[in-house]
User: Fold these one by one.
Assistant:
Number 1:
Amino acid sequence: MGVGLLVGVWVARYLGPEQFGLLNYAMAIVALFGAVASLGLNGIVVRDLVKEPEAADETLGTAFFLQVIGGLLAFGLAVFAISFARPDDSLAKLVVAVFGFVMVFKSTEVVKHWFESQVKSKYVVWLENGVFLVLAGVKVGLILTEAPLMAFVWAAFLEGALVAVGLLGIYAWRGGALSAWRIRCGRARTLFKDSWPLILSGLAVMVYMRIDQIMLGQMMEDGAVGIYSAAVRISEVWYFIPTAIIASVFPAIVAVKKHSEAQYRQRLQSLYNVMVALALAVALPMTFLSGWVIDLLFGYAYAQAGPVLALHIWCSLFVFLGLASGSAYLIENLQMLAFGRTLLGAIVNILANFIMIPLFGILGAALGTLFAQMAAAYLFDLIHPKTRNHFWMKTKSFVSFYRFSF
């Protein structure tokens, strides 16, 4: 993450807001259809490999074939979307086409799922980190040689291709036989039957997370997307904190629920309290230091990103809580409600951006995202009886922090 942030900032400074904005706009268009490429199969493939190891070749072969089809479909949808959104922008269409085809390479991620099922993810980590570091060096070289925008796009394409080939290579190296993979219609039906709700959920998540950049690119210009993306990059870098903490405490919370509902609620309340405290520990200083941070990292050309960061950083409060309650939804078997709140966030984000961007420009996109995060991660819990207790626990976390502070 540190290397990625450093090189990403350097690339942003080199390209400038206009070209950096086009790059992020294209990536947002492609990301919109990422759920179609994966077909929601990731967790399902791991589950089936663990439950039925004797059918691993059938599961891997069928999932690989399905994801190749999904990747090609996602590629076609991304190309169609950019052709509709920017019919006269040949550069944008080329960038989206190159990024979009990388989704076809994602089909090789079935190998990742096999290693996960064997508890041997270290090989995948070595490969992905190694390729990432090599390509980070390539990007630095492109900056030093004053390469054009498309060189960075092709570098991203190369990274995807190298990881895909590498995954197949380490699978064969560790004893797997690609020739043994089999495609079965029955297995395909079973996989797709389990995965289609996750495709819808994934689409909603991508709309929820990326629609602000796409709408900025349509309603303003690429320079605005570049400035906004610079702020978002700094704001979102903190999201690893709740992910790491929740991954650590999740098994303990699952275990305690089996024995005591009251203790489960107590543990969950403690988690919400920690999430609020950590989010505010990030948001409060960043609100006042945002201009200095943007100037230090991105330079004067991105000065307008300072106020955007000061506003967008408050999304972390609801993101942290949303990640925590997302785990609780899983424990309580509320997956459909999890989809519902993501869908609500996507709808609010679209409507808020449609209203706010014409009124406030780049700041309007940050406001739209903040409203969407608040609606999905906090206010949605008040709607349904099964989630209302989460709303009151989150509210208690806000009140407890206020009392502790003052």
Number 2:
Amino acid sequence: MSSASFPKSARLRRRSEFDALRHATARTGSSHFVFVATPTAAPARLGVIVSKRVGTAVRRNRVKRLCRECFRQWPALRAARVDILVIAKVGAPSLDLAQTKREFQRLLKLLQQLPPREAPRAVEAS
């Protein structure tokens, strides 16, 4: 994955994927975001939720772009085998990229506490 791309394989796309993560137990928060993560056997994927309470469409889209950019630029996030859900809070649009990266530091601490998940085992024919 190049640093400037965000392919479909790196995104949470279905409602069921978002719902499954929303109820995961590995959560941490910052003043502007709630981070939820769960280990998987597949490469890291990111999902961002920004409700209308956060602001206009322009402000919501800016928050999403900042979150995706943090994910793209952080090799430790991309290398981890986790699904990550970022839920934006009301003050999130006031952040710039550097401030957003500082908020994502909490996410890295959460990821370090997650137990690794083993890859699925192949079924042996008997």
Number 3:
Amino acid sequence: MRRARFYMSLVVLVAMGLTMSAQYTQTDRIAHGLLNGINSVLDAQERKQRAEIHAREKAQYQTTFNSAMDEARELEENGKYAEALAKYEEASVLNWKYGYSDQFSLTRKITSLYVPACRSIDGPSVINNDKTILEDYSGYHFMRENPIYKADNDADHIQIVRVCCSDTETRVELEYENVEKAIYASVPPETYIKAKKSGKLHLAQVQNISVKPARTLIEQPYQKLRFALIFPALSLQDSEFELKMPGKVWNFKKIPCK
């Protein structure tokens, strides 16, 4: 009899514990729901405040953007290309942030002025270009500059600007132009070159660009990033090769090396 009463009391206590646990769980859910609701309201208010600040800044700098564009056009018409280029770049920075005009068209305009402005060597705002260009290329038995090999599906944005071959390495220098607001560039570690006699040769070193998962920021829409990919030496019997970046559209074919 006593044992039965004990078990009955135990069942009652367990039931009460489960009920209290359920009540606490329900209370906890309600609290979390209220907290999430409050956070959502705060986030919405913060987004609204940021949008309002952005709208005020956009209106504030509209005149500055218009003036820079007007001055740039006038300077360009008068043949003062270097000054015009500087003004277009000034306008581009504002346009990148506030969106007054079509950024792609403005980027194309900036790019087109680098030759008449006598700045074709450094290119439009090249990032750390000095880290890519070597002082001496005499150690390579083959070199071709500005061959302008463009990628299969990204022809307007990336191109090979120099190919160098020696007994110890194959060096491919590329240039990537940013046409968006901001972009991160990187090279997959599986990148390789391939030739008939040499077969597949994997990436050995990079210069001025990150290897995944690291990333290199190209912040402004008119900037160009020049970088070098270095591979083992190709066979002297190979006359051309291809460059492959897995998962990318940066793929090049029939690159001469002889």
Number 4:
Amino acid sequence: MNYELILASQSPRRRQLLTEAGYTFTVDAPDDSVERGICSKCSPEELVIESAFLKAAAIAKRHESGLILAADTVAVCGSETLGKPTNRDHAEKMLRTMSGKVHRVLTGVCLRWAGTATFKTWLEETTLEMSILDDDLLEEYLDSDGWVGKAGAFGYQDGLDWVRIKEGLESTVVGLPIEKLPEWIAEINSVSPR
């Protein structure tokens, strides 16, 4: 790799995935104001792609060179898009919504060459099934604060036995489809402005 890879994220889970996959990178996270939140006028797919694009664009302004990697993840249950919970009550509402149901986790990814307008975006989806959460299990989990900062109020990587992947990549749920990254870097390299 003859360029600097810059992760546009504060997520320890994304850093861990990159590190475990052997990537060398620096971290430059965008300000919280770049976070898009939930958009009533766009689909969840559009939301995560646009959010990843906005994060990459914000960081690209700070660098003259390098490849910016940005991602955004949401859970979708029925017609509800579930981002990160704002507090314990919000986390409980999300988990009760998904309890006993199949839901999807979407991660949008953007790679952008700093100092240029050249970028590409991708979308990955994983389908999961959550067991019915009884009140005791739910209270125990909420008390653990395991839901803090996690889309859909749970972290699959935490080894929870009450949520299972039906189809797709575990890394998509964690927040960065790391298995796809070599292919995506090859694609962005093919349109490299250098």
